[in-house]
Amino acid sequence: MAFDGVTIASIVKELQDTITGNRIYKIAQPEKDELLLTIKGSCGQVRLLMSADASLPLLYLTQKNKTSPMTAPNFCMLLRKHLQNARITSITQPGLERIVRFELEHLNELGDLCKKYLIIELMGKHSNIIFCDDSNMILDSIKHISGMVSSVREVLPGREYFIPKTQQKANLLICSKKEIAKILTDQTMPLFKAIYTGFTGISPCIAHELCYRACVNPDQSAMELAPMQLEEIASKVKELGSEIEQGVFYPNVVYENNQPVEYAVTQLSSYTDRNVKKFSGISELLEYYYAEKNTITRIRQRSADLRRIVQTALERNVKKYDLQIKQLEDTNKKDKYRIYGELLNTYGYGVEQGAKSIEALNYYNNEMITIPLDPMLTAGENAKKYFDKYQKLKRTSEALTTLTKETKEEIEHLSSISTALDIALKEEDLVQIKEELIESGYIRRKGGAKREKITSKPFHYLSSDGYHIYVGKNNYQNEELTFKFATGNDWWFHAKGRPGSHVVVKAGADTPPDRVFEEAGRLAAYYSQAKGQEKVEIDYTQKKNVKKPNGSKPGFVVYYTNYSLVIDSDISGLQLVES
Question: How far is CA 528 from CA 116, 418, 464, 533, 548, in A?
Fold first, then answer.
């Protein structure tokens, strides 16, 4: 979701209601592009986080503190000099621009009342926090932008602050329905694009939502709409503007398969089939949403080394397996050489000296075959030569059959580890995976290093009918779940022929209803290599039918009695129990 003007309007409304009239108690700069203001007053004590990070600019209220550097940066020191104990008199947003302007009152060294402005621009790579005096002259900024960097506007001390007009977009808040319709029909692009390029502060997500509300095709041009359709979409755009003006917002996060995929401050009716979580305020939403996203991103970064090790080993084993299969196919001619030898022993008395071949009846199929001969050898010597070739290929075939089986098992093992890395949600989930790679010889344990403490636990879900369902996150958890935790009559699920988690339904002596089997099947599909597919075949059986072969890799099992079902991998309706 883009941090658009509509979202910022919601933030401004929340800040106006919460911290206007309160005083700035502390100013910190924990990161190079980030400020953390501690504010006290009628709101109690809250912290306002301002981030001008190019990849993730943010502005929201929080109760969490951050560690600051021992020596405060110059920008932070300047703000402390002027704004310590300053009162926030107003918080505004120009139009629906991605800009928030804080008007602040403070006493100078002589005790005179002064006015300053702290402006945060939340514009992706152009984001900045700018400190201005009462005449809009820039005193300093968290990022200095010279004319060498930007030909549109310099952001340097002593320059006048202004909002650059780089895009000719209309202000939704002051447009009539007629003007909205004209702006849309003046553009030949798809309707949803015409909405977010024609009006300030609208993101593609909101543009799609407005098209959905108006029941029009977002990919159709506005000029192709019927008059009634054009009036309807103009009405929906105007209604959004009215909601913003009145401060009516509905902060919510849309989930897909228990992961946040979208957020907005207006109702996303186009996501009616998804799980939606509502929040009381936009700050709570932003802190929660980006904490979830950051967790996923951090896990991806932390697991990068493990992924590289697994992927390298997997590619090497796949190449080895392909070569072994090719060599194994070449040994299929061994029986031909054995038959040549036997026939030469049978019919060799009739071979003339120096003959290059012999026609003989193959008594295995009663067909005539031609046997090539070495003219420098006798029939008996040619027969021995063919028998030697047969024995060599037979030994090679036996060795390759064992090797290809081992290599295939190793590929399946590495694929299961790769799937476990995709499943991992927390740093502790990676500990067991790393330990498995160490024990498999892919990572060398550092001298004297102790085995890390295992704190990760399987996923725990509650079915719609109240049955407890457990999902292993990696091979070690799969093995423990199946052979130590589950009892004989519990039900066991796994994606057929694919790396994935073991799923156990605790049933005891009961026979769960069909819906429980379907939900457990969906979990087995989701936590497997088939995640995202609409049709996944799942094998399921009672735990007592699942066995572990001697000497097999962790988590590898066999079963000969099972049922099957085909189901999708959508688990959005399932409840995850927090451990």
Answer: 57, 10, 22, 10, 20
